[in-house]
Write a structure and sequence with these properties.
257 residues; alpha/beta; 7-stranded mixed beta sheet; 7 strands
């Protein structure tokens, strides 16, 4: 495996003491990257329970994750990222976790930056913090130019709908408190859902903030959004956003506390 992890042990934020916390890692055919993802999470916080949701992978993703000591939830067939992510949040909610972080299984999210995401949640300034690669200018990986153009269109649309600036609505790099875990456990968009989830968070009046982070190119596997699918995805998500404006909240606010 390229780049063995050589990270010195770090001090865990004392505000996490006594809080049950979990890292949710949705994964589909990520055999090449899942070991590194798990090792980086453990280097950041050895007390984080790790649940890998294997979304019907055809490779050894689940077996490798189990060998690394992660708890693995195996889905019998591929549900898509939304179904895998909601499965992880349901596991977290039903098992009483108070804090959750979410990282993708492809290695794009650097677990050493989780402290940045956890800060506003632990300070009770946000229910959910989302890592944004576009919040500040920098040299980090930002995906291809056509994909960035699509994200810009989605970001502008979402910002208009929620009446505040959103820069990276497709990011799955997140930290959440119990309130946000409960919402996503009960109701989560499917397909490639992060954009719709921003609108859902707004409608349920949860506090969401973006935190500047740097991301990396995926270690292995293949993105679920290909060039041909990208146009279809853009149209579908934009339609879903406008439909979402008229959708009643499936989950009452009092039920997600």
């Amino acid at each position: 495996m390229a780049e063995l992890l050589e990270t010195a042990p770090r001090a865990v934020d004392p505000r996490l003491a006594g809080l049950r916390r979990i890292a949710i890692v949705p994964a589909f055919n990520e055999e090449e990257s899942i070991t590194r993802v798990i090792e980086e999470i453990r280097a950041f916080d050895p007390e984080l329970e790790i649940v890998v949701v294997d979304d019907g992978s055809r490779d050894r993703t689940a077996a490798v994750a189990e060998q690394c000591g992660a708890h693995v939830v195996r889905l019998p067939f591929n549900l898509g990222i939304g179904g895998a992510v909601q499965t992880g949040f349901r596991y977290a909610f039903e098992n009483g976790f108070r804090i959750a972080v979410r990282l993708d299984g492809d290695g794009q999210h650097d677990a050493s930056q989780l402290a940045l995401l956890l800060e506003p949640v632990l300070a009770d300034e946000a229910d959910i913090a989302v890592g944004s690669r576009f919040a500040v200018r920098g040299d980090g990986y930002r995906s291809s130019r056509p994909r960035r153009a699509g994200i810009t269109i989605l970001a502008s649309t979402v910002s208009l709908l929620v009446r505040r600036r959103v820069t990276d609505p497709t990011s799955g790099f997140q930290a959440l408190n119990r309130h946000a875990i409960g919402l996503f456990a009960a109701d989560y968009p499917h397909d490639i859902p992060e954009v719709e989830a921003v609108l859902m968070v707004h409608r349920h009046r949860l506090r969401m903030v973006e935190v500047p982070v740097q991301m990396r190119e995926r270690v292995g596997g293949r993105s679920s959004i290909g060039r041909v699918f990208a146009v279809y995805y853009m149209v579908k998500v934009l339609l879903a956003l406008f439909v979402g404006l008229f959708r009643k909240n499936v989950t009452p606010l009092e039920d997600i506390k």
